[in-house]
TrEMBL record:
Stored Gene3D superfamilies: D-Amino Acid Oxidase, subunit A, domain 2, FAD/NAD(P)-binding domain
Membrane-crossing segments per the record: none
Residue span(s) of domain FAD-binding: 4-310
Domain of life where this protein originates: Bacteria
Protein name: 2-polyprenyl-6-methoxyphenol hydroxylase-like FAD-dependent oxidoreductase
SUPFAM superfamilies: FAD/NAD(P)-binding domain
Record Pfam families: FAD_binding_3
GO MF annotations in UniProt: FAD binding
Taxonomic source organism: Actinophytocola oryzae
PANTHER family: MONOOXYGENASE (PTHR46865:SF2), OXIDOREDUCTASE-RELATED (PTHR46865)
InterPro entries xref list: FAD-bd (IPR002938), FAD/NAD-bd_sf (IPR036188), FAD_aromatic-hydroxylase (IPR051704)
Amino acid sequence: MKNTTVLVSGAGVAGITLAYWLRRNGFVPTVVERARGIRDGGYKIDIRGAALRVVERMGLMDEIRARVTEVRAGSVVDGRGRRVASMDGDTFGGREHGDAEILRGDLHRLLFEATQGVEYLWDDSIADLRQADDHVEVTFASGATRTFDLVVGADGLHSVTRSKVFGDGHVRDLGYRVSISSVPNHLDLDREELTYVSPNRTVLVYSTAQDAGAKAMFLFADNAPVPADQRQYLADRYRDESWEVPTLLENLGADFYLDELSQVHLDSWSDGRIALVGDAAYCASAASGQGTSLALVGAYVLAGELAAACGDHVAGFAGYEAALREFVDVNQKLGPANIKRMVLATKAQVRMSMVFLSLLSRLPGKDRMIAKAMAPLHRAANAITLKDYVVRCSAA
């Protein structure tokens, strides 16, 4: 095995999963993360299709099942809070075939605990990268300098690694914004999700078995730059809205988050000894429902292809892209299509949607209709056959 020392930038799902598989395949990973520790909490995410097989191979499936959100029901409500349509939690969330819904922070913690022995550099980040023929020299924000055989950016949509190596211009704004925050559970929801829709604005609020409070998500159409005062910006976009929206906006938590819904498109995910994985390389946006699964699968494939090439980064990076590109393309196509169904543009569309959902919830064949609507998501989630990577490399 050659090129064994690998710096991974970012301790999110992609970065920690990559560190796990690199170490298991004979590499020596180091993870640098600007946060001071693993991020707990967070919103609920889904693990589907091929990603389920990744966590199974990590031996984490039982622990994930023990921490699922247990959301039992989902309803669409009108401005007066009346439930227009209700479904069981899995149907409402588009889950089937053993898909698992878990809080992002719980998944982070499980992945991190599986990487005991990996070096983590907390409260630090990459400040500069210089590639040589046989190594990458890294200068950290802390001022320290180290060399690594390879570097992988797993630092998300706003990847510093991508910007430094590939330049700017690879992020495509879908024309929508998303905001997520903890809120008090003033509606006394018990593992239930409520969705309120108005023209160009959607609000979701839910409670889970793993959280005593609740989470609120705001999705809205906008392509203007997000200003510094994000809370005021969100309040302005939902001004004079009905239902429980004013109460939710008044009680946003300290974990408030707001960002654009965007995708990342690159012609190549590597340059020399530096590669990208997860959202840094191919963000599909939260609207795809596949961001976490792409991170898990991408990290597994990247580590596996490097190991199969015995550390030859040229062959390993090429194999990674060849194995994953079609899977990424299929899943990225979900984002733009899904968001238009999640955020409706006109009052007429909202009215028609409410009537349709009300009728659908009472139709005898609703399960077949819902399954047909969700079929593209599940085809995308399973649009890759994972290899069983076997490392057969002689000693250096």
